[in-house]
Design a protein that fits this description.
Blueprint (H helix, E strand, L loop, with lengths): L7 E10 L2 E11 L4 E5 L6 H8 L7 E6 L2 E2 L2 E2 L6 E2 L2 H10 E4 L11 H11 L5 H14 L15 H13 L5 E5 L7 H16 L3 E5 L3 H7 L2 E6 L2 E6 L1 H6 L4 H10 L1
Parallel strand pairs: 3-10, 3-11, 8-9, 9-10
Antiparallel strand pairs: 1-2, 1-4, 4-5, 6-7, 11-12
Helix pairs in contact: 3-4, 3-5, 4-5, 5-6
The structure holds adenosine-5'-diphosphate and magnesium ion.
The site of adenosine-5'-diphosphate (ADP) has 11 residues, from strand 2 and helix 1.
């Protein structure tokens, strides 16, 4: 792969649920080290784009390229689906998702949560996976919680555990879907700090967020979606400092 090949390219993405077209032709590119934020009202299609990118949802039209390699499809329209199970696995493990509701496994300790996929999906040696799990828990500031169960942690700690779990897959990029929306304001900041640190170390990330301050602070590129289309995009300074479209202006004043 040449350095110029993007980690993730979404081209002309179209997605409908039954007859409801929710993504109507969207292009987004993330190069290595880019932080791309997706903003927009509820229902504008942000989560759907992330889920289509890592193949949790199947789009009906358009290309998704991971490190220059296009997803191979079979079928067409609503019957279209990725054709190659190995490619699906490669893309899923390399575009690691962090969800709003953490989605930790409640019957496993925090350490087991972080070790599970590297061992079972990637076939890592258990002792090595355990050592890296401790390192990732340390990185997100919850090294002392390894023996706790998710229910014993605060929301902010659970989300940081979920970030450690995503990092343990050593993905090419991290996809965040409203990572701070389920958290009380005082716990949001501990997660924002972790995301900022990841941005500073040059991680490639796509972040759906309602937190405009975080989007402004961490992003290289911001995409404003409206009803399944990109209404405006640019640098954080352009979008937040000098919004052009009336819809974006309205959206920003509603979130201020
Ligand atoms: P956002 O993340 O920006 O709030 P979503 O991507 O979740 O928006 O949703 C975009 C649109 O798709 C909305 O109209 C939503 O109701 C619809 N939608 C999302 N998921 C489904 C689904 N599983 N079945 C049917 N409609 C859905
Ligand atoms: Mg959403």
């Amino acid at each position: 792969m040449s350095e110029a090949t993007p980690v993730l390219q979404i081209r002309d993405l179209h997605k409908a649920y039954a007859n409801l077209e929710v993504i109507k032709g969207v292009d987004i590119t993330a190069h290595r080290g880019d932080v791309v934020s997706l903003i927009g009202s509820s229902g504008s299609g942000k989560s759907t784009i992330l889920r289509c990118a890592n193949l949790l949802e199947h789009s009906q039209q358009g290309d998704i390229l991971f490190k220059g390699e296009p997803v191979t499809w079979k079928g067409s329209g609503h019957a279209r689906e990725p054709a190659d199970p190995k490619q699906i696995l490669r893309i899923r493990t390399n575009l690691s998702m962090v969800f709003q509701q953490f989605n930790l496994w409640s019957h496993m300790t925090i350490l087991q949560n972080v070790m599970e996929a590297p061992v079972t999906v990637l076939g890592r040696d258990k002792a090595e996976a355990e050592a890296s799990a401790h390192a990732y828990l340390n990185k997100v500031g919850i090294a002392d919680k390894h023996d706790a169960y998710p229910a014993q942690l605060s929301g902010g700690q659970q989300q940081r555990a979920a970030i450690a779990r995503a990092l343990a897959m050593e993905p090419e990029a991290l996809l965040f879907d409203e990572p701070t929306s389920a958290l009380d304001p005082e716990l949001e900041q501990e997660v924002v700090r972790v995301i900022k640190a990841l941005a500073e170390e040059g991680r490639t990330m796509m972040i759906v967020t309602h937190d405009m301050k975080m989007a402004r602070d961490v992003s290289d590129h911001v995409v404003f979606l409206h009803q399944g289309l990109i209404e405006e995009q640019g640098t954080p300074d352009e979008l937040f400092g000098n919004p052009k479209s009336e819809r974006l202006k309205q959206f920003l004043s509603s979130t201020a």
